[in-house]
Amino acid sequence: MQKWCTEDWQFELTAIEGKAGHCRLGLEKGDKFVFSYECPAGMCPKTMIKVYTWCEVIRCGGDFTYRGEKEKYEMNIPCADGCIQFHLKAIPINRDKNGKPLPNGPRPKDE
Predict the structure, then answer these.
(1) pTM to 2 decimals?
(2) Most exposed: 66, 76, 89, 101, by fewest CB within 10 Å?
């Protein structure tokens, strides 16, 4: 498989509330997933459907303030079953003129 699309965003999804015994997959507070487009290994696919929708809002130029959030690129979201609370953070990927990620990492929030 050869990926042809250059991703401009990276997402961090961190469990901020919940216990492993309440989640079918055993997710719990502190679990963290970092991804661009794909469903990260070990992440609940049912919840990823909800998360993916909010990732698309960012990819299309929107932000979470339209949803009433204080931060443009951060929001809390419950899992599909309501037993785990997640924090979603969108991070723009800063690239050089050739499309390669710059070594200094993501751009500042206010760009």
Answers:
(1) 0.83
(2) 66
